[in-house]
Design brief:
The chain has helices at 6-10, 14-17, 21-31, 60-65, 115-127, 138-144, 176-180, 182-186, 199-214, 229-232, 238-257, 259-262, 303-313, 341-350, 394-411, 452-461, and strands at residues 41-48, 78-84, 89-93, 106-107, 129-131, 155-160, 191-194, 267-275, 281-291, 296-300, 327-335, 355-357, 370-381, 387-390, 418-425, 433-442. The protein is α+β, with helices and mostly antiparallel strands. The radius of gyration is 27 Å and the shape is elongated.
């Protein structure tokens, strides 16, 4: 995030973004009441934006007046959308004459807006309303009639980012605002309930218009630009995400606590048996290395390939590096701001666990523990020298899951260089599959010219593949 863009992030021109006649028509049609005299219902959607801004603890005036800029860890702001479902009008409050320049419908994070803030914002709309998507003519008419007011809703239905697409319209437990604002809104004679959000709002308004305008242009590609696991990996399910992220937590904990053993290990060779169907089995293998400084786990096709790649990467400056037709895969542990937004949202929606690690902010002061996301990448080096970075396939992600679990078990058994493990994987369609694996910790030296893969292949062959 670039500090010079902070003001732009918080002063986005929302009225211009919402002036979409075709969207209004679509929303009106979808939300149109059936009876001739319907009760007035508003939809309030609290959306966690895929963007970064200074946290609420940072004062904007400090950013404006500071030559160097304030040091902070960016947070995701929350957008509050209020829609009159009978008209399709997006509602907000007119600018406060005593305001300090911050939009009342954008709340800087990291915490979501409170129940009290939501109710106060609704009261502001009722007292001093403004329609964001008024058509030409209607806006002029409203200017001429300063006393024009909107009708108070009889009911407000809520949704948040996690519950936006829930299909159960009677689900009042999932979104905390339903019950959290109930007593406060009861004083205004307004009922509360839950309702999912029309996809047009998320896809056409938020994804295509608001969020792109809140994100500064990327100066260079980074891991946060990768597509999400759920969106880009064929067959990836929420259950597999749960087991994969859980394996990452165990691995990070083991590597952090048993780093002394890693100093003696150069490679981990892993083989595991997998039942493909009732009649077919497969034995897969990989070689793994660990970067001690940041716990990055790298998976190679085999030990020979690993040695070749490491040899190339360790060449002195000025020496020619040849990575043609080579491939490696990484599991990086990164902070939220370096993770794909789709993975962050999926983690929150499906309650995937995340490893926490304390750190320092840019000023060197200690901060609270932060979630460290496992970011899985596959790097392919082409003949023409180009590097392609993408998401691993499903079976490759399962190999990561096995490796993360096997290394954790190996480090927890410091007196054994060779151990077997048994685990349950949900990689295949989210169904539980028993996997048995064998891992050997290697110091990189050969023993009598026999490779680690040859040493363990016989033992893996005897594993009873479930």
């Amino acid at each position: 995030m670039h500090e010079e863009k902070n003001e732009d992030i918080l002063s986005i021109n929302l009225p211009a973004l919402f002036s979409l006649p075709e969207f209004t028509t679509c929303t009106e049609k979808r939300m149109a009441p059936k009876s001739s005299k319907p009760s007035i219902v508003w939809q309030v959607y609290v959306h966690k934006l895929r963007a970064w801004a200074p946290p609420i603890s940072v004062k904007l005036e400090d950013l404006e007046n500071s030559e160097e800029g304030a040091s902070f860890i960016p947070a995701r702001p929350h957008l509050i959308l209020v829609v009159d479902t009978s008209t399709g009008k997006f509602l907000t409050s007119k600018e406060d004459e005593n305001g300090k320049g911050e939009d009342v419908n954008i709340v800087r994070g990291p915490e979501p807006p409170s129940n009290e803030y939501i109710v106060e914002y609704i009261e502001k709309i009722l007292k001093n309303p403004k329609v964001l998507n008024e058509r030409d003519g209607e806006e002029e008419e409203e200017k001429e009639s300063k006393t024009k007011k909107i009708e108070k809703p009889t009911k407000i239905v809520f949704a948040c980012t996690k519950t936006a697409t829930n299909t159960d319209t009677s689900d009042e437990e999932s979104c905390s605002y339903v019950k959290g604002t109930r007593n406060l809104l009861k004083k205004l004679d307004i009922q509360t309930g839950f309702a999912s959000v029309p996809r047009e709002i998320i896809e056409k308004i938020i994804r295509e218009q608001i969020e792109p305008n809140m994100n500064p242009p990327a100066e260079e590609w980074s891991t946060e630009h990768l597509p999400g696991l759920m969106e880009s990996v064929d067959g990836f399910t929420p259950k597999f995400g749960l087991s994969l992220f859980a394996a990452a937590i165990q691995y990070l904990s083991a590597v952090t606590q048993h780093g002394e053993k890693l100093e003696k290990i150069k490679f981990f060779n892993i083989e595991y048996g997998l039942r493909l169907d009732e009649n077919n089995k497969a034995t897969l293998s990989c070689c793994v290395t660990i970067d001690h400084s940041n716990c990055t786990l790298t998976v190679y096709k085999n030990e020979a390939e690993a040695k070749k790649i490491i040899e190339e990467l360790e060449k002195e400056e000025g020496e020619e590096v040849d990575m043609t037709k080579k491939s490696l895969q990484n599991c990086l542990f990164l902070g939220e701001e370096l993770s794909p937004f789709e993975d962050i949202d999926a983690k929150e929606k499906y309650d995937w666990p995340c490893a926490a690690s304390a750190g320092e902010d840019t000023s060197g002061e200690e901060v609270k523990e932060r979630d460290m996301y496992p970011v899985f990448t596959k790097m392919d080096f082409e003949e023409d020298g180009t590097l392609t970075i993408r998401r691993p396939q499903l079976v490759e992600l399962q190999m990561f899951e096995v490796a993360l679990n096997a290394i954790s078990a190996s480090l927890l058994n410091p007196d054994q260089n060779k151990i077997g493990i048994q685990m349950t994987s949900y990689a295949m369609k989210g169904e539980p599959t028993e996997v048995k694996a064998f891992i050997e910790a290697r110091d990189g030296t050969d023993s009598g010219g026999v490779t680690a893969a040859e040493n363990i292949s016989e033992k893996v062959g005897k594993l009873d593949i479930a």
